Prior knowledge:
371 residues; alpha+beta; Helix Hairpins; Immunoglobulin-like; 8 helices; 17 strands; 25% strand; ion transport
Amino acid sequence: MKGYLMQMLKSYLAKRKLCQKRLVTKDGHCNIEYGNVMHSNFFAYVLDLWTTFVEIRWRFILVLFVASFTFSWFMFGLLWYWIARNNGDLAWQHPEDNHKVCVRNLYGLTTAFLFSMETQTTLGFGGRDITPYCPSAIALIMIQTLMGSIINCFWCGVVMTKISLPKKRVKTIVFTEMAVICPHEGNLCLQIRVANLRKSLLIGGQIYAKLLRTKIIPEGETIILDQVDVEFTVDVGKDNLFFVCPLTLYHVIDKSSPFFEMSVETLYQQEFELVVFLDGMAESTSSFCQVRTSYLPQEIMWGYKFLPIISRNKEGRYHVDFSNFSRVEPTLTANSPTGINNDYYYQFSKNNFENHGFEVIDIDKTVSGKM
Length: 371
């Protein structure tokens, strides 16, 4: 039991250490800090108020939602109290019996607040209402009604926009936790698998990647996060993908590849981060979304290939077995791109390797039962 807990602790610390090294986390979030932004560019956030509200967390949205309505009710309640006081309607002012009030049954600040809330929410309980004797009261009720409508429209827009953000759609597009390097059609290739867990397509999909690393140029300057383009394709290209089933992405390791100088012995000694992007438009909502993930050298397996995932049954229907989505098996692989035709490297393992962190689901049952 103690050994099992120690193993779990070591695994957790190792994952945390890898997470701290990343610029892009496995689920696509950018792991970067901005310093002294609010001090110098505070008004930029104020001017772009709509984007600020859309991007803040739900807990702050709820607090601001309640605060905005409560504040407006209170401020207009003060104005109603001021109108009633100027007209001599309050109880402590002892109005005469034939006195013409501006608002019936408004006796103090509490009733003024209640009347303000009833007016802005169009409740109209019937206990308090304005009379036609005060032009200022008529003008104020028009202003409050318009302001209440503006506040309602603003918050409805914010809530609907946050709900319809494509961030939730990308949760149903997953990459394998590990990448592999193995032969494909006579070339040594870096391979990644991606799957769409919904039957609704991602239209106009495009695949590309960036290799991030620290580089020292001949002038002696150190460039942090130097970006190098990495070309990924599938069997039919890299643009306008028919993303109806899981796809395997291929990067040919040739002389133009940043991986060409690496080998099985030197791969894990490198310091880089491979960030993979998949852009497309959700078919159901017509919203553009981008899926991101990243791979460190420790997450690239040399000498393994992905297990087949697509099959065809006797009835002629295609079947996707998600239990094999992240599973790999050893295969005969060259030690390095330069030794593709002579030296080979083989991972001697009798068991298939399974990447953790991917939830196996039956997509047919999920779609027919819940979607």
